[in-house]
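We were asked to recover a plausible sequence for a given structure. The inputs and outputs are reproduced exactly as logged, with field labels preserved.

PROBLEM: sequence recovery
POSITIONS: 302
GIVEN STRUCTURE:
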């Protein structure tokens, strides 16, 4: 960013071209998501468990439809093509399994990244807090007080991600605290650019700003909606084919087809829930930030 941008200072060896602050990025991402009107909005409005339930019922319905269609097949025709058809069903089931595995891996990788970034940001803020100990009073106490408030605001911002009415308010508070931090540190760095202690503090605050932007980008990075649609269509068509195979033998295989529908629905639910970091049952926890807040409050009370 340029020196006039409160979010961070320019680093040596890099250009000073202005970059948008991460708070503005958050608001831009929210606005674009609201304008887009894509089906991904539907995926986030409808609870993951409800979507998985609907998919499971659709699979059961297509299995039943495929069974009735298979029952109409001539016994002689089904007998002559049974081996080829069994190989085809096995191939389709294997393909569905691969799609589910790859989609789950995509969602799990995104979840792991979001969790790791929480720890990295907590470590960066803790490092900045410790480095302020070399700053002279009264600036040291002021910077440390703002950093403690910043941690509280970041926790509130993370918890407000599922509430679009609270998120702009918490984002504005975080941006205000960032400006206040740089209002305290920035002028001192410019007055004494060769003071090692101030350079350390400025570098740590730059890292804090960077990680907030990285977390915002990670929160907005979801499994593409095309993949979700592909999973649903593949599961429904596989159910249709499995039911048809059962119909050609005149045996419903209720237990096997029911287990198939339940397993597919559960895996899809897990994929959707992992991809919603602040909603559902599986959430990105903020223990690292809360632990940092407790340590900072303890240090401030000493």
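RECOVERED SEQUENCE:
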């Amino acid at each position: 960013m340029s020196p006039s941008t409160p979010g961070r200072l320019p680093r040596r060896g890099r250009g000073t071209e202005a970059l948008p602050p991460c708070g503005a990025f958050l608001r831009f991402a929210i606005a674009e998501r609201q304008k887009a009107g894509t089906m991904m909005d539907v995926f986030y409005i409808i609870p993951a468990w409800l979507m998985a339930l609907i998919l499971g019922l659709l699979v059961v319905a297509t299995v039943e439809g495929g069974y009735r269609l298979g029952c109409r097949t001539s016994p002689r025709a089904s007998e002559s093509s049974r081996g080829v058809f069994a190989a085809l069903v096995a191939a389709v089931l294997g393909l569905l399994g691969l799609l589910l595995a790859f989609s789950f891996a995509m969602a799990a990788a995104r979840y792991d990244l979001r969790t790791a970034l929480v720890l990295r940001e907590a470590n960066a803020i803790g490092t900045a807090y410790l480095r302020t100990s070399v700053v002279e009073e009264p600036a040291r106490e002021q910077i440390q007080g703002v950093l403690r408030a910043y941690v509280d605001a970041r926790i509130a911002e993370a918890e407000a991600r599922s509430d679009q009415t609270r998120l702009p308010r918490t984002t504005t508070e975080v941006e205000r605290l960032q400006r206040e931090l740089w209002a305290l540190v920035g002028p001192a760095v410019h007055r004494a650019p060769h003071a090692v202690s101030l350079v350390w503090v400025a570098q740590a605050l730059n890292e804090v700003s960077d990680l907030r932007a990285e977390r915002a980008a990670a929160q907005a990075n979801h499994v593409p909606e095309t993949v979700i649609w592909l999973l649903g269509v593949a599961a429904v068509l596989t159910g249709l084919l499995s039911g048809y195979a059962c119909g050609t033998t005149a045996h419903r295989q209720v237990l096997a087809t029911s287990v198939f529908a339940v397993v597919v629905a559960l895996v899809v639910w897990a994929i959707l829930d992992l991809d919603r970091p602040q909603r559902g049952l599986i959430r990105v926890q903020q223990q690292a930030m809360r632990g940092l807040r407790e340590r900072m409050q303890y240090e401030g009370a000493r």
